Amino acid sequence: RPMRSGLPGHPITFEAAKGERVVISGKRLLIAAGADLLSRRHIVIRGFIFQEHAQEFVEGGGGAQILAVNAEDIVVERCVFDGRMNYMFSGHVYRSRDVRFHNNIFLSHWSTILATDNLGTLELSRNTFLGPTIHKLYGNRNDRVVIRNNLLGENLFPKKELQYKIVAVGNQKLEMDFNCYYFDPKNKERRFVDYGTLALDVAKAGPLPDGSERERFGAKGDLKEWQSRYGQDLHSFIADPLWENPGLIEKLRSRARGWPDRTFDYPPFNRSDLRVKADSPCLGKGENGVTIGADTED
Q1: Nearest alpha carbon to residue 294 among 152, 84, 86, 184
Q2: Helices (DSSP H) in the chain: which residue ranges?
Q3: Is residue 138's pLDDT more than 70?
Q4: Pairing state of beta strands 193-196 and 216-219?
Q5: Do 110 and 87 touch, CB atoms closer than 8 A?
Q6: Which of 13, 221, 243, 265 has the highest count of CB atoms within 10 angstroms of its CB?
Q7: How far apart are the C-alpha atoms of 141 and 139, rounded to whole Å?
Q8: What is the C-alpha to C-alpha distance for residues 82 and 109, in angstroms, rounded to an integer?
Q9: pLDDT at residue 217, as a whole number
Q10: 193 pLDDT exceeds 80?
Q11: b/e map of 153-174 (b: 16 or more CB within 10 Å)?
């Protein structure tokens, strides 16, 4: 919990020492937040590994590995969020302004980022999402949401009904492009976005099956329909990212029987474990020729 805020153009930066593996630990579910940024402004969080955090605070409030409530100008970059020990969020952003998640790796959360009622821009850029249970982003009633150059891997339980990679409902502005979506071939649902307009009462509406919505859109692996109806993801594609070590990837996004359980030991992993092959469709295919997904240099 930072003691104070930074200044515009002069943020306070918390950064892992170069070449070191610096872990922000929840001590096997005893601590609910890795970084509690309540009412803080102009903060940068860079280069840490977050793991083993609890789902809720002892006093009953919600927890997340990055908790940004009533915050402003927050940048989270080049971090690794390991959610294998608990059913929780990596980021919870609420009633904040201008929050950016850039070049991070997210592994096996519930909904990876929950973002509601935020002003300014919520940006997800060049991140790799691997194995959340339900959504990579659940974002509703935000001023502006930008999702670009992200690698959105398969969800943890690919056959779960009405499971979307992105939920974006009731946002003022939505900008999605240059993303790579991957679905396990065994996944028959293949849903990648659940979208609703501002006119929708998001307090009452839940995810709806295909064909039943009037102001919502759930794309069942049909990227062309999403592109033509809303002009989103015009340069995005659905493809296997071609992991360099697919066996390890499958192991990382899997769950042990009886999970969640604080007694399980989850082996550590590095950014380099999520490398893609030299012929990956993500290399150089992002905006302005960048690679889609997070960098994998340790």
Answers
A1: 152
A2: 223-230, 246-252
A3: yes
A4: antiparallel
A5: yes
A6: 243
A7: 7
A8: 8
A9: 79
A10: yes
A11: bbbbebeeeebbbbbbbbbeeb
